[in-house]
Design goal:
The protein is α/β, with parallel strands linked by helices and about 800 residues long. It has three domains: about 10-65 and about 90-115, no CATH class; about 70-80 and about 115-300 and about 315-465 and about 805-810, Glycogen Phosphorylase B (Rossmann fold, 3-Layer(aba) Sandwich), CATH 3.40.50.2000; about 515-790, Rossmann fold. It is about 45% helix and about 15% strand. The protein binds ligand 26Y. Ligand 26Y binds next to α6.
Amino acid sequence: MTELTAPKSSISSKDFANEIRELLKYEQGVTPEQASAADVYVAASSAVRRHLMDSWMKTQQDMVNGNTKAVGYLSAEFLMGRQLRNSLLNAGLTEQFNEAVKELGFDAQKVIDAEYEPGLGNGGLGRLAACFIDSLASLGVPAFGYGIQYKYGIFRQEFDEEGKQVERPDYWLANEDPWGHIDYGRSQRVNFGGEVVEEDGKRVWKPAWAVRAIPVDYMVPGYASGRVNTLRLWQAKSYDEFDLLEFNKSEYMKAVEPQVQAENISKILYPEDSTQVGKELRLEQQYFFTSASLHDAIRVFYPGQDKPDLTTFADKITFQLNDTHPVIGIPELMRILIDEYGYDWDTAWTVTTKTFNYTCHTLLPEALEVWPASLIGKLLPRHLEIIEKINDQFLAELADLTDDQDKIERMRIVTDEDDAKVRMAYLATYAGSHVNGVAELHSQLLKDVTLRDFSDLFDAKFTNVTNGVTPRRFMKLANPGLSELITEGLGTDKWLSDLELLKGLEPLAQDDEFVKKFAKVKYDNKVKFAQFAKDEYGFDLDASTMFDTMIKRLHEYKRQALKILEVIATYADIKSGKVNADDLTPRTFIFGAKSAPGYYMAKLTIQLINNVAKVINNDPDVKGKLKIAFPYNYNIRVAQLLIPATELDEQISQAGKEASGTSNMKFALNGALTVGTLDGANVEIRARVGAENFFLFGMTVDEVEALYAAGYDPSKYYEADPRLKAAIDMVANGTFSDGDAETYEPLVTDWLKKDWFMTLADFTAYHDIQSQIDTLYADQLEWNRKAILNVANSGYFSSDRSIEDYLERIWMTGPLDK
Ligand code: 26Y
């Protein structure tokens, strides 16, 4: 007997259909006959929201009235993905929806597809935030996600005739957004600029301008917890609608200028995802949402109190800083406590340090945010004073802890130079109670390298929380076939809220009948993806070939170049007759990647992949053997279709560069095998699924270090491996640029002269592992056994487990009472 615990609302499909009819009539003013799929999508979404409303209100009340500390997840990015299916799942309305829309004469998938994906994040960090708020709600922990409701999300990617990336604005709010509820009454004032003056012995900030932060609330329904939390995204609005004095015809543009300026703050998500961008507007965004959120939390937890006792603030809510982006919240809370509520410095400091914790998501020093003190002084003069005072206090503390003057200098929060800089990661590390990395290796490297001086002196602050992903979206919704098979295999669907139960699948890897069913699910997912790729992109993919996928932001350290060079080398092997195409496992290489618009090398790599695709896909000599598919505008929707269809997952970053990775977890949970380096969470995935079920290759962190130290010369590797040489020569000689040798010259020169991420040094090892992959793939039963073992042993990578670790190690709180 299969035990089913998934939430199920008691409402009938008929009644649900009637609710949709009502909403179509009273909200949209259309009959079901007149309605479009988009209308039905809006009405159905509103109907689901209504069903969640009681739980949402009760959760808010219990949170404020109870004594369970809440979590505030401060993040500049929340990459939520589409909402309707997820909300239906958690509200227990999936079946009713499917039936109801049919009754109304609509195709369910068309209704689902009417939702435009909100892309309010760049990649891993933003998606992690989305998984975390899902898990918080599912565990019944009272929490707010706090961020920005960007008007334009991550750009829509297109490819032009030459295969170059073109960025188009992502105006996701062009149509009605039934999920976001604008709450004008709870807006906050956020001040900027001006100066600080001395009044009655006090420092008083006289700001020059202000914007109104208006909250847009999204429900975050938990799975099977009965709880619904809130994602509160702030929208910037001007206080001065137009200045009518200025408003005559010729001054019209001038009249709306202040409004335009204020509203620019929440206009666009910065598409940079790793190297820092020192843009004034970005600092404005960071201050805008952290200031509004902190004030909001005071409003929520001390309702109606003019003189709240904020010494208890850290008992009401703990704030997690998702990377350095919200770190300006630290001096802001100091300012609120001192300037707005009259606390003394030491009291404010005690409250502030208890309130914040910091998660670091990088190892690349160039990604650690640093702001010119002059810029902070211009936008936030009072905050600069506070930061300087924190710095002084810190230096005094350090002087008591160490005699090492160099170390003290290295650790300064505000650098000692003419054009002084403020190091946000250092500020967060000093002021926060805890600092964590996002995978074991990453947390270790943070201590050993990136934040070494800090860990020397404040070791107790440092901890690790390995990332995780939500099984609701990335298994149940993305892979219904596998989910059903797992439920059948385990005899229960409880694994969706207790993912370690997947362990129970282990014996089934030896059951040939089960393995065949598993293989069938994978094959069906491939067919489904091929169909989608045909409809959406016009690709002809062959589901009988191996689906070999690399999806992630385009970065040199992630080494998409390694993958494409290996594909080119294989192509060259076949063309030159060195290898008989019939001896190779036919593969479809699938890429998905956006590049930061200003990242030249990354964009050139995209162009190269597209043009290698053009050549290879049109060459009859390799037809049926090698194919490249590079769907443009990779996003959560594509991920949900592609991950379940993938057999081989590429996680091939240079060791010591990828903080964690999270798609690696999604792939393992969906039964792909990984080819990867010992980097980020790959290390932990391999340890859990077993070395024999993971294709490991490449240098370790120590080997990388040693090679840098010895003086790295990539050209040696080029000379030593004829396949590598052939591949690079092909790129250099214009094979993929209509004979033009100039096009990829910067890439070629970089590979041969610099190759900072040692693509060439790992090339031979990467190739050597391919024959092992082919051999295993030839034995489908064995391959699928290993894939099942990956699923069975990846339960640890649920974001529920990550959240439990945060609760225990950092937040010191838990679920609300039932
Ligand atoms: C400063 C600004 C330009 C900036 C904006 C976005 C800097 C960084 C980012 C985003 C970083 C990011 O997505 N990092 C990824 O975080 C994932 C979740 O922890 C990790 O799995 C992944 O390894 C890391 O690259």
